[in-house]
Amino acid sequence: MHSRSSFSPSGPAASSAGGPFDSDIAIPVSVLNRTIGRLLERSFPLVWVAGEVSNFMRAASGHWYFSIKDGEAQMRCVMFRGRAQYAEFTPREGDKIEVRALVTMYEPRGEIQLNVEAVRRTGLGRLYEAFLRLKTKLEAEGLFAAERKRPLPTHPHAIGIVTSLQAAALRDVLTTLARRAPHIPIVIYPAPVQGTGAGEKLAAMIEKANARREVDVLVVCRGGGSIEDLWAFNEEVVARAIAASELPVVCGVGHETDITIADFAADVRAPTPTGAAELVSPQRTMLLRELDQRRAALARGFGRLAERRAQQLDWLARRLVSPAERLRRQRVHLQQLQARLASAGARPVRDARARFALVRLRWERWRPDLGAHRQALSGFARRLDATLARQHERHAAKVASLGARLELLSPQRTLERGYAALLDGRTGHAVRATGELKRERRYELHLAQGAADVSFGDVQPRLTDTF
């Protein structure tokens, strides 16, 4: 028995000419099926396949097994639980569907099958493309712009509903409005919500509600369903009627996951018809509670106003006096004015006298005292004479000291001690060494008393110790 690896397409046998396997070597069926499966998965990408459902079965594991067929052929399909749980519907026998699948091989039985990743009803792809085209077109025109959205009235006087009289959504909306706001009248504008011509009739009812002007807000709603069931709300005529409406429009179509063109055109989108009813209706209990609070606040305000008026009345009553008392008060007031007038007349004289006394005092304080100044000048003169005398004495002593020092250093005193000074007759410089003596040159000899011209016939220098 050959090992499995020797028959793999990537093994040695794959290198022989003429194909992936050596025609002389027997291979197991499992290897053949696995190889075919890999070739199929590489050759066929994910594709959409259309057909009719046959032999549908949901296994206990949650996987779906069925066949998809047309008039000439069929193909087995499997959709595993991880994909099937996100499908929007469960196929039934005879349904026309489209599946997005990968062509694979079921190796144990050697059967080719489709591994389904998504499923939709036939035509949904075209509907979705039409939905995207219309959405792009209307969005480019500005029908979905946020600045054109109108706010909903806080307290509407009447609410209009555009839907079918047989729709279950109408009962939900009416029940919600009766619970939340039974005092608000309801006007129903009946129109079919699916089928041929439903879009034109919905648009006509919206225009009629705007023309009659008997409501403050419109609710356009219907229950959930497939994309075909909700297609009337994806028609351009409905979107344009909603955008042109002068009344604010709340759209509550299908379930929370259902999105239609009408949702984008409406002023407010509600997740469900019940949610739309809650958006347009104020809750009666909340209104009554707010009314009670405002009534209590108004009563408190009136009470405080009455208290302030009563206090003001008491103050005015205290100010109200008899004519005799008023005359007495005026008489007292006149006496006070007379006293103030007399005081005001005497006050300038007192002020002038006080100012005069102050000026005189200041003048007396600042008048010069000549005797004190003379005495001060005499003191300054004596101090100046004493200072000059001391300064003269110091200078005289200093001159005497300097004269003594000069006398001590005088050349004459040196000559008197027995020394002589010998000067060169030509240059007048002092001769300080025997080497400077020249024969037959005239020199000047200075002594303590007088001077003489001398010359030397023969100069014999000798070394002597200096004193």
UniProtKB/TrEMBL annotation:
Cited NCBIfam families: xseA (TIGR00237)
Any single biological process term in GO: DNA catabolic process
Domain OB-fold nucleic acid binding: from-to ranges: 28-119
Molecular function as annotated in GO: exodeoxyribonuclease VII activity; nucleic acid binding
Catalytic activity: Exonucleolytic cleavage in either 5'- to 3'- or 3'- to 5'-direction to yield nucleoside 5'-phosphates
Catalytic EC class: hydrolase
Family statement: Belongs to the XseA family.
Keyword set includes Repeat: no
Ranges for domain Exonuclease VII large subunit C-terminal: 143-454
GO-annotated cellular components: cytoplasm; exodeoxyribonuclease VII complex
UniProt keyword annotations, A-Z: Cytoplasm, Exonuclease, Hydrolase, Nuclease
Gene name of the encoded protein: xseA
PANTHER family: EXODEOXYRIBONUCLEASE 7 LARGE SUBUNIT
Described function: Bidirectionally degrades single-stranded DNA into large acid-insoluble oligonucleotides, which are then degraded further into small acid-soluble oligonucleotides.
Subunit-structure text: Heterooligomer composed of large and small subunits.
Source superkingdom: Bacteria
Any matching Pfam family: tRNA_anti_2
Organism of origin: Trinickia symbiotica
Subcellular location(s) per record: Cytoplasm
Protein name per Swiss-Prot or TrEMBL: Exodeoxyribonuclease 7 large subunit
Enzyme Commission no: 3.1.11.6
Major localisation: cytoplasm
